[in-house]
Amino acid sequence: MNIITELFGIKYPIIQGGMIWNSGYKLASAVSNAGGLGLIGAGSMYPEVLREHIQKCKKATDKPFGVNVPMLYPNIEEIIEIIIEEGVKIVFTSAGNPKTWTEKLQSHGIKVAHVVSSSKFALKAQDAGVDAVVAEGFEAGGHNGREESTTFTLIPMVRAAISIPLIAAGGIGSGAGILAAMALGADGVQLGSLFATSVESSAHINFKNTVVDLPEGGTQVTLKELAPVRLIKNKFFHDVQEVYANCGTKEDLQNILGRARAKKGMFEGDLVEGELEIGQVSGLIKEIKPVSEIMDQLLKEFNQAKQLCASL
90-94 and 111-116 as β-strands: parallel, antiparallel, unpaired? Predict the structure, then answer.
């Protein structure tokens, strides 16, 4: 047992990222049943859809699970009320000021973790009273920090800055990666890309197969003027780069992005015009596996890495 497993009441300090269009109740419950902490991704759900997923997750697991809430999304007040009404006990917040909802959530017995990309924001989250911080490096998929700090540099800097529990995220896709993050000062880890390609992920099979086939360097962060996001280099990505090449404005970028690009890509499987979000660690993912096998492999690799380090 460590501080993260004790905080969330889980067996292993491994948390599944609450990724939009990937993290429904099937994925969250599978991770929780395997001893980690599953998160439902509220960012791609209307409020009543979120309620349905929470209710189904409660039926699918008797283990702790949580909800990831990007605070920039509409209907945030309704989402928070549903989380409270349904008795969810763990919430991960991101993309907003942690002071906004932390106190209210904690007043209902809910543990709150907040995702940050720098020591400065980690300190703000600690000052806001959160129970834990997720420090996410530049390698991560989806929306990313503007600082471009990699996980290996970010984790020790955040560890030196805060005293509350620290969860590392970004570029972690193996048991050895988990050990490395913890050696740098993390108390636990959050994995996204590896679980996004699992059997239980709600992502489209076209997206999963594309991730499995990705080479090293198959992703890049773009759209920094709107909200930095790491994407697979498909046609849509190259269309965005053409806007940059032509010295396009922020409005031009917004126009080409439009609406529902992420749903089109990850959930509906449009590999040409869709927004395909995945992390750099995708270069290591070679197979679509059930969550149970992923967790077993992570634990096996972690123990092998520990033994190797002990022998050095």
Answer: parallel
